[in-house]
UniProtKB/TrEMBL annotation:
It is found in: Cell membrane; Bacterial flagellum basal body. It is a multi-pass membrane protein. Pfam families: Bac_export_3 (PF01313). GO terms for cellular component: bacterial-type flagellum basal body; plasma membrane. Role in flagellar biosynthesis. This is Flagellar biosynthetic protein FliQ. It comes from Massilia polaris. The chain crosses the membrane at residues 12-39, 51-69. Keywords: Bacterial flagellum, Cell membrane, Cell projection, Cilium, Flagellum, Membrane, Transmembrane, Transmembrane helix. The keyword Protein biosynthesis does not apply. Belongs to the FliQ/MopD/SpaQ family.
Amino acid sequence: MTPEIAVDLVTGALQVVMLLVLVLVVPGLVMGLIVALFQAATQINEQTLSFLPRLLVTLLAVILAGHWMTGYLMDYCVSVFRRAAVLVG
């Protein structure tokens, strides 16, 4: 295995991880911003008010995007195994 192939594999893996994390984190960040603006406007400082909506939005993102995320990760794993077979054989 050459260094170029190793760097290519690591780069692809990091891209997959960043994309999958982005799909889960961004909705929670947006909901956190909305709740923070609501809390600042009403001066309500309740901890559960900031935690529960972010949790629900993250769970909803997992439910809605879970099938796509699993398929994307499986496709990446298949492509890595195919490339490994080409390198070995």
